[in-house]
Write a structure and sequence with these properties.
Number of domains: 2
CATH architecture of the largest domain: 3-Layer(aba) Sandwich
Distance between the termini: 32 Å
Order of helices and strands: EHEHEHEHEHHEHEEHEHEEHEHEHHH
Structural class: alpha/beta
CATH superfamily of the largest domain: Glycogen Phosphorylase B
Largest sheet: 7 strands, parallel
Number of helices: 14
Strand content: 15-25%
CATH class of the largest domain: Alpha Beta
Number of strands: 13
Radius of gyration: 22 Å
Length: 385
């Protein structure tokens, strides 16, 4: 049985890293190959370590769809995969067309809340809205081609299926996983200079809820001066954050640390992990925080609620609600011993549900069931979910 995985690139992105984790834990009885289209190669060496063959289409332009389709048609006819799995928008489009022409079974993936209400409202305010609509049109026109879809979140599946007009019984939900062996149990760090440290790790973009986050700490400093917020990451919202920090003289409270290698390890230096996003895919960063066992405060978007149960395994606040965000951070500080126990429960649940061996087994098992025409319909989404 042979699978071909198609990706836009091998850059350092959540999808590329998650795909690498999954295929690295497949049984070696499966034959697997990887193809990517654009020249971002940061993870190429790690992909090569899997031992699976890798093909590169070397597309120079983001619009070189025809060249990519022809390359893939030739590759499919050469390697003769039983099934092709595609991820990310450009790869999805080229793979669907190539598989339609070659008569090859293809599975597409839902990785982000692409057509959720918050995302759509955000896109309507941007100059690139016409480009977004063009992408949506191509997505919808080719959405009949995949035999099944794999979604990393139930809420993402329901949102995208509604807009694209897909039947739920074509969608399998498999969450993102992480290697739990990499995450030793978090221990409460010492209070250096009596400061309680909060941490955010991720891209610095507006939809991560970063402005609300720094506003909360600007308010909180008046009643709790011994706090610190460490922000790790880079992005186009960085200048806005720096301007806010400088304007309110928060340099001793909030620190912009830039990107660091293996940023998730900074979790172990903090007392609480913050995740205030407006919308997400099913977040690998949130799974990482859960696996460590650090106490968490996160927005209540549907994807986060599939991972965290409020009060039981984390504190959730209404998305974009600065006042409730403030209240949950205040609760984190004032009831910290209880929050540590909450983090321990999160770690236990994350290891049970999201360990990469569990996820890879689900993923590989589903692909094999598709090839063998033995898909268990009870494991797919149904009406009423």
């Amino acid at each position: 049985m042979k699978f071909l995985f198609a990706l836009d690139s091998l850059g350092i992105g959540g999808t590329e890293k998650s795909t690498l984790d999954i295929i690295s834990h497949f049984q070696k009885t499966s034959s697997l190959e990887v193809v990517y289209f654009y020249g971002n190669h940061q993870l190429k060496e790690q992909y090569e370590k899997t031992g699976y063959p890798i093909y590169f289409a070397d597309l120079k332009s983001k619009k070189s769809y025809l060249k990519g389709i022809l390359f893939l048609i030739k590759l499919i006819r050469k390697v003769k995969p039983d099934l092709v799995v595609s991820s990310l928008a450009k790869s999805d489009l080229m793979t669907r067309i190539a598989c339609l022409i070659t008569g090859t079974t293809v599975i597409s993936t839902f990785l982000n809340d692409t057509y959720g209400e918050t995302r759509l409202n955000e896109q309507k305010q941007k100059k690139m809205y016409l480009k977004f609509l063009y992408g949506f049109m191509l997505d919808k026109l080719t959405s009949f081609i995949p035999k099944f879809w794999i979604s990393n979140s139930k809420s993402i599946a329901l949102s995208n299926a509604k807009v694209l007009g897909l039947k739920l019984k074509k969608i399998k939900v498999i969450y993102r996983g992480r290697d739990s062996n990499l995450f030793h149990e978090w221990q409460q760090p010492p209070l250096i200079n009596s400061k309680m440290k909060f941490v955010f790790v991720g891209r610095l973009i507006e939809r991560k809820g970063l402005l609300e986050m720094v506003e909360v700490f600007n308010i909180l400093k008046d009643t709790h001066p011994n706090i610190q917020l460490d922000i790790y990451g880079e992005g186009d919202f960085q200048a806005t954050l720096k301007k806010y920090i400088d304007h309110h003289n928060l340099q001793n409270i909030i620190k912009l640390n830039g990107s660091v290698v293996n940023g998730w390890k900074k979790i172990y230096e903090a007392h609480c992990f913050l995740f205030p996003s407006w919308y997400e895919g099913f977040s690998g960063s949130l799974v990482e925080a859960m696996m460590s066992g650090i106490p968490i405060v996160a927005s209540d978007i549907e994807m986060n609620k599939e991972a965290i149960t409020d009060i039981e395994t984390g504190l959730l606040f209404k998305v974009k609600d600065k006042q409730e965000f403030l209240e949950k951070v205040f609760k984190m500080i004032e009831h910290y011993p209880d929050m540590i126990l909450m983090g321990k429960r999160a770690r236990k649940e994350a290891i049970e549900r999201f360990d990469i061996n569990v996820i890879a087994k689900q993923y590989e098992g589903f692909l094999k069931s598709v090839v063998n025409n033995k898909v268990d319909s009870s494991q797919l989404l149904q009406k009423g979910h």
